[in-house]
Amino acid sequence: MSELFDRVDALVASRSPLPPPAERKRLRTAHGLTLDEVAAALQVRRATVSGWESSTKATEPRGKEREAYARLLKQLAELYPADANTSTPVQDTAVPATFASTPAPAPEAQPVSTVPASDAAAMTSQQNTQPTSTPESAPAAASRPARTARPSTTSRRPAARKAAPANTPAGADPRFANGPLAVVDVDADGPVLAYCTGGLVLDVPAKSLPSLVDWTLKEARLGQPKLSGPGKDADPLIVLTPSALVRYGLPVALTEEERHAGRIPEGHKVIKQLVRAEWKLTKRGFGPWARIYRPAQGSERACVQLCIPSWNALDTRHWGDAAQLPPAELARVLGVYASRVMTPRGSTAVTGLELMTALHPPTRASEPDAEGKRHSEHNPGSLGTDPVDCAPCEAPDGHPLLKDLPRFHVRGPGEKLFEEAYDWARPMTDAECTLRHLVGIDVNMAFAAGANGLAVGLGAPTHVKVPVFDAKLPGSWLVDLSHVDLSRVKVGKDTWAELDASLLPSPFTPKGERPEGPAWYATPTVAYAVELGYEVHPLEAWVRRENGRYLDGWYNRLRDAYLATMADLGVDADLAPEGFLAAMDGYKSRDPELAIVVSAIKATVKGGLGKLRERPRGEGWRPGEPWRALSRPTWRPDIRAAVISRTRINLHRKIVKHAAFTGQYPIAVLSDCVVYAANGPSPLDFLPYRDGKPLPGGFKLGINPGLVKHEGTQDVLWGEEVRERFNAPELNLARYIKDGTVTDVDNGE
To answer: Which end of the chain is more exposed for a tag (fewer CB within 10 A), N or C?
Structure first.
């Protein structure tokens, strides 16, 4: 009889009621659980849990998994009841009331416990004057912690509370209980509100900008813990909406003159207010990303970062329409980015560079001396506190190292290191013209993948004459690679391949042209010549004997941020090729806000690497004079060159493997995009998958950095017509393959 009861119980459990996918996700994130943690507890794959939460392709658990999953969600629903005012369709009529569906929350929102009795009186008095909003007026209400819930009234403004958080979740830093940032806005009724991550809304009592800074540091509990042991906590970020700018006496938009200067005048009344309150601004002044501080007292920092979207702080090329989002939604976008990358410190490029330093702080505390005191000392593996000169060949034009060159001298490859991304194309062959489609594939996070595991110099270079090449030694090498013949190359330990070199770009130059003599190359480029089966004999080199994998932590942080956000958009790392292509189709429309985060993460990679060789930006600079960026330890053109070199080589290696195995050659290559002619419109129509497995060492479809996705498909006739229209037989079609729109032949800048 007991066996019969067990079977009945199992049958009932197999139909355990579950909330809709969005509610499942809300409950998980409200408790601070990751997909991996839930997957481990239920003994399933991460992708399985992600599928259960997907609003577009939700799958349903069965059997014991369903019973355990339902039990987990029921317990979480008791801890984090849904907002009573939220009304969205329920998936199953048998679902209990506690599982009412809500809009998708901010990913990984931090949980907040209920308010203690000491706060109850203050909150009760607020309920009469600050009632909750309807769901339409607070898009982030779904992810709002239980302590901010209020009874609904006719007001559309979200209920706010004073910044006096109660018990913080286990493991959370109570100093930053309200998250890394807040978007400050003025409600139509008059009160100033701070929209934080997780849907929390705070009352802002500040009447002026100096008092807003004081409130942020003393009451708001905003900020982010340091990313590395010897590092520093992130300063709180305050985002000012146009209505907040008006309230605090700042212009909603900059004048043309102010925009070019990047700041408002020093005589502005708000700056005078800050000065009177003994606050300081950095040398960049009060611009779109202003930093307001007082000199540190011991280890205590007093600094607040301001972000002003209407002053173009959030570049539309990288942040899309984030600046136009309502406050709660903007807080969500910036909050997800902050939690997965870091609190923004400026543009995505600035943040990318700051992330390197945050993960490898220049100094650390020493061991106690004889008197028990600790001192600041160099942090091994970092770039230190002092800038180092680059090698002359690594210096960009106008650098002080080149001031003795004739004014109009143009340096050639034998004088200048020129490691850049590909911009190469060729005419189509007759056989390719008989095919129907041009298919573009794009390498995911290509430059991040190029940084992974790469040894780079940490200190100053050493000049060496007639060196023996060492592939493990970062540096710049003057060597003749013109003898490398792509018609016969090594593709394995003892395997040589015969190729049509006329259909391949050279791996040694960005334009794909075969070198004509000695030229400067970064270590990965020279190492690839050896890998292809050819000897190399450098004439001289600038090497960096102090080196390390400085960018590994940076890569890992950005990779994880990218993969987690793409998983939230329904694109998991372990999808089969067909499933991956289907998941990528229209992924941005599933959650446009998270799509903005993806764009910002990718821009952080490229921008951060670009900052390693930042050029002069006005300021009255003249060639031969130093510019501001040269004073940074992170001004390292050699590191940038090494990453670009390795990225280009990684791509060429895949192109060679593909050609050797399939006989197919690229028609165009632009940075991380490659175009092939094919009989079908899909990458699967020319990528050599067998039994679901890709060519070893070749192109593989997937979302991980270094794998490829579908960039776009056009007709072969389109390509021929475009080239004929512009009288450009080698027009780089990779630049236009995504949507086929060609307005003019540009120079690739």
So the answer is: C
Mean pLDDT computed over 345-373: 93
Question: What is residue 208's three-state secondary structure?
Answer: coil
Distances 121 to 168, 309, 548, 571 between C-alpha atoms, Å: 20, 37, 57, 46
- Return the bridge partners of 423, or none: 670
Task: Give the integer Cα–Cα distance in Å for 653 and 425.
Answer: 17
Give the distance from CA 510 to its chain's centroid. Answer: 25
Q: What is the DSSP letter of 362?
A: S
Mean pLDDT, the chain, rounded, equals 86
Percent of the chain having pLDDT more than 90? 70
Tokens of 603: 């821009």
Amino acid in the structure at residue 602 = K
218 — phi, psi (to 5°)? -100, -30
Q: What was the pLDDT predicted at 12?
A: 59
> Do the strands 237-240 and 300-307 form a parallel or antiparallel pair, or are they unpaired?
parallel
* Contact between 713 and 437 (Cβ < 8 Å): yes
Task: Return the structure tokens found at 40.
Answer: 């481990």
d(CA 742, CA 749) in angstroms, rounded, equals: 15
**Burial state string for 52-72 with b = 16 or more CB within 10 A and e = fewer than 16:** bbbbeebeebeeebbbbbbeb
Residue 202: phi and psi, rounded to 5, are -115, 145
Exposed, middle or buried, 592 (CB in 10 Å: 0-12/13-18/19+)?
Answer: middle
pLDDT at 547: 96
Alpha-helical runs (H) found in 506-636: 523-531, 552-568, 577-584, 587-590, 592-611
Whether 21 contacts 52, CB under 8 Å: yes
What pLDDT does residue 100 have?
A: 34
In three-state secondary structure terms, 289 is strand
Per the CB < 8 A criterion, the answer to whether 358 and 228 are in contact is: yes
- Position 92 pLDDT exceeds 80: no
How big is the chain, counted in residues?
749
Q: Cα–Cα distance between 191 and 160 in angstroms, integer?
A: 10
**3-class secondary-structure state, position 595:** helix
pLDDT digits (tens, 9 = 90+) for 650-671: 999 999 999 999 999 999 999 9
Q: What is the pLDDT of residue 4?
A: 62
Q: Tell me the C-alpha to C-alpha distance, in Å, between residue 705 and each of 602, 662, 708.
A: 11, 24, 8
| The pair of three-digit structure tokens given for residue 689, joined into one six-digit string | 């998958």
Q: Where are the beta strands (DSSP E) in 298-350?
A: 300-307
**Among the ranges given (78-87, 188-197, 597-606), the one the predictor scored with the smallest mean pLDDT:** 78-87
Handedness of CA 253, 258, 260, 263 (dihedral sign): negative
Rg (CA), the chain: 29
Closest of 641, 640, 666 to residue 653, by C-alpha: 666
Q: What is the layout of strands, in order, in the sheet containing 540-543?
A: 462-465, 540-543, 475-480, 518-522
Q: What is d(CA 613, CA 420) in angstroms, rounded to the nearest whole number?
A: 12
Residue 85 has φ and ψ, to the nearest 5°, of -85, -10
Do 553 and 359 meet the contact criterion of CB atoms below 8 Å apart?
yes
The more confident residue out of 174 and 449 is 449
CB 602 within 8 A of CB 377: no
| All residues at 6 or more sequence positions from 141 whose CB lies less than 8 Å from its CB, including other chains | 83, 85, 86, 102, 103, 133, 135, 158, 199, 328
Report pLDDT for 628: 93
What residues contact 658, with CB distance under 8 A and at least 6 apart?
664, 688, 695, 698, 699
List Cβ neighbours of 604 (8 Å cut-off, separation of 6 or more): 341, 348, 349, 351, 352, 355, 558
The C-alpha atoms of residue 73 and residue 147 are separated, in whole angstroms, by: 20
Find out whether 149 and 138 touch, Cβ atoms under 8 Å.
Answer: no
Residue reference for tokens 């794959």: 45
User: What tokens does 479 get?
Assistant: 């060597």
Nearest to 27 by CA among 90, 68, 69, 88: 69
Contact criterion met (CB below 8 Å) for 279 and 271: no
Nearest to 557 by CA among 338, 230, 732, 271: 338
